[in-house]
Each structure stands twice: as C-alpha cells, then as structure tokens.
Specification:
It contains 5 helices and no strands. It has 118 residues and is mostly helical. Helix 3 crosses helix 4.
C-alpha cells in the first residue's frame, strides 16, 4: 500500500495523476505530505538548535576533522554539509535563511590556521 501511495504522490507531483485517484485520495489525511521531507526538516531544526547551544557555550565552530568530542563531530559534519550545499547552490532558501538568522557568520566558519590560545 505504501508503495502504491508513493507512486500516486509522484504522479501528483508530475501532474499526471488520474483525476479519479486524485478525488479519492483527497480523503486521505496528509496525503501530499512527504514523510522524508518532514523528518529532514525536523532533523535540521534539531541540529540547528544544538549548534546554537554549542556556540553559546563559547565554543568555536565545530570541526568535522580533528574534533574533541562526538558532539562536535556530529555538528561539524552537519554544518559542513550545509555550507557545501550552499556553495553548490543546492541549499533550500528557507534553510539558508534559518542558518543566517540563527548563526550570523556561519558561512565563513573557523578562521584558518591555529586556534587562538586560551
């Protein structure tokens, strides 16, 4: 059943869905909602909140290499992927605005070279 609904969603997105199916499926709650997109958005908001908390603790931008904790690694990989998607022009504009609003200067990240002495 899930596969059938997935196929109908694709047809609806391509605007090739039979009108009879469209009328019948209109009765299904959240039928146009893509669960993968919903979970990706939830994960993005969660990671962003974690990154904001990480930075508020006085930490520098998290690293995805040579990290000091698993938390730093997880956040470093995530922010690296967001920056990479932005450079390639693949980052959703809504997500880009969320990042810019929550973390000004997030695109630049760490300065190159040795970290400052503490």
């Amino acid at each position: 059943m899930a596969r059938w609904i997935s196929l109908r969603r694709r047809e609806a997105a391509a605007e090739t869905l039979n009108p009879a199916y469209d009328a019948g499926l209109a009765q299904v709650p959240r039928r146009r909602e893509n669960s993968r997109e919903v979970s990706d958005d939830a994960r993005c908001h969660h990671r962003l909140a974690q990154l904001v908390a990480f930075r508020e603790e006085g930490a520098d931008w998290p690293r995805h290499h040579d990290y000091e904790s698993e938390r730093e690694h997880l956040l470093g990989v995530w922010i690296h992927a967001q920056r990479d998607q932005r450079r390639r022009g693949e980052l959703d504009s809504v997500r880009a605005k969320l990042l810019d609003d929550a973390l000004p200067g997030g695109q630049a990240g760490r300065s190159r070279g040795r970290p400052p002495l503490r």
